[in-house]
Structure formats: structure tokens, C-alpha cells
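Hey team,

Filing this mostly as a record. A colleague (T.K.) asked me to run one chain through the structure pipeline before their review meeting, and I want the input and output archived in the tracker in case anyone asks later how it was produced. No errors, nothing strange. Just documentation.

Input sequence:
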Amino acid sequence: MNLLHLLLKPSARRFFEEADTLPGFTTASKLHGYIYLRWPYFYISMATGEHPLARGLMRLSRLLDRLRPSRVEARRKARRALKASGGIRYADTYHGKVLPTEEATRLVKIGREVTLTAPESVVPYQLARDIVLKNPDHIVVFDCPCRAARKNPCSPMDVCLVMGEPFASLVLEHNGKRARRISVDEAADILKAEHARGHVHHAFFKDVALGRFYAICNCCGCCCGAMAAQRNGVDMLASSGFVAQVDAEACVGCGNCVQFCQFGALKARDRALQIKSARCMGCGACVSKCPKQALSLRADPSRGMPLLVEELEKYASGGQSIL
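Output structure:
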């Protein structure tokens, strides 16, 4: 065991030990993953551009763009070439799957270890599709790094749920003032409370987080970096596999649901509700806000399949197709 290994906390040692068992997991990926999990607030504030250093670098980049306009066109060409080639995109390395509250609650209450790879019909990205839950009842809630990076964040702050090992212990051991271990029932209560606030549950996957699912974040459109990226054309959020539908006879067009849609999929006009299905991510935030119970979710296979661990296990064992 080398000196660096001895200096690491137990959870970090477990992270590196597990990373060593993964084929193709490079030293750079190990360090990247450690930095991400060890210093999430610095990492996310840099990624969202809220950190002073990030703002300084962006100003420098804009200055260089003005001095050398060819830089801008070169980036555009590179993006077009990457899209045309089908190569690895940023979203392939870091992405979230939208979960209705029922599915999110089932995931935190899974109560057993799981090892499987979600097909692209569920997690539609080239990388980081594994669901490997070791000690799934080890759940840590910590202050949302996206909210912490904002000047006027939404509240409460402690809404991000890290599930399983080594992730839960790694976050707790290194961010103890902003994190605490909670029970499965407490995690379910947080999901319920965030749903009541109109926030969206995302199951997050990251390539350098051992290539797998590691957290359920409860996100608001005003603070969440991933939702901001989605609005700016970085396709890093996948639909739940459901879309909202309205019972036109029951709907009175009050518009109460519109203010809770984080994806701009709802519009009330002439006392009727219009749903832009292409924008709807199937989070279900609107459903519980309808005083007439006129909204519901329906499965839409064209938007992908839901993340249901039990169904994925059946699929992996050859028992039957997903739903």
C-alpha cells in the first residue's frame, strides 16, 4: 500500500479499489471521479459557471473569441463533426433519468443489492448505464451543490440523496458539515416533500462515478445545472418514459399546474390546458397540483422506458421484455 493510499479516508480507498477492478477505468478517470465526489461544491460551481474562477475563465474565453473569431467557428465545426460521427458526447458521460415520485420511492426502498446494466431504451446514453447498489440502505442526504452555488437558491438545501457504497460514505466523510446519514423512510419523506414543492427527481449517472447510478437529486429549474444545460441544448436528461395527459372534460383551465412545470410543457389558454408532449419529461409534478384531478401520466414508449429495477432484472435474466 503506497503513501497516498494511506492518506486517503476509508471510503476513498474503497472507491479507488473498486475503480481498479473496472476494465478501461483510467488513472485520469479515477482522479476525476475522486475530485467530483470529494469536492462536489467546487466541481459543480465551476461546471455551472457560478464560481469566481469559472467566471474569470469565461471572461478570458470571450476575450480570446473577440481577438480570434476563428475559435468560435472551430468549436461549431467540432460540435457538428461530433454529432455527425456519433461519438461520445458530454451528455454520454454525465446524465440524469427523470423519475416520477413513485418510481423514485421504489428505488430508495429497494432493500437489496442490485447489479445490472440498463439498456439504452431506459438510459439512452452510450456510457454510464450501470445500476450497482451495494448497501442500498446506506443513504446520505447533503446540501444540493447546484443550489449552494446560487446567490438566491431555493430551499431547503438538503435534498440530494446519495445511495449505496462507496458513494454515501465518501460524501459523508468529506462533507460532514453538509451531509448526514438518513434512513430509507427519511429519504422517502424527502422525495415526497420535494414533489410537493413541484421539484423533479433525477437518478444521476456519471462515467467517473464508477460508470453508474449514484444519486437521486431533487431539482428545480432555477438552480439545477443539468436542467439549465438541457434548456441550452445539452441533452443530458432523459424522459421518465411517461408524458402528462389531460382529461379535457374535467379540466377547467385554471392554470394552477402551469407554474409547477419545470420544462415549459404546459400552457393554459381560453380556459383549456395545452400540453406540449415533446417538452414533457414525465416527472408528474403537475399531476398532484390539479385541483380537479384532470391530469395523469401515461406511458409513452417513444420517450423511452421507465427506470424500474424489478423490470430491468427480469429483462436481464431473460424472463421477459421491459414492460
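Quick notes for T.K.: The two ends are 47 Å apart (CA to CA). The longest strand covers residues 212-219.
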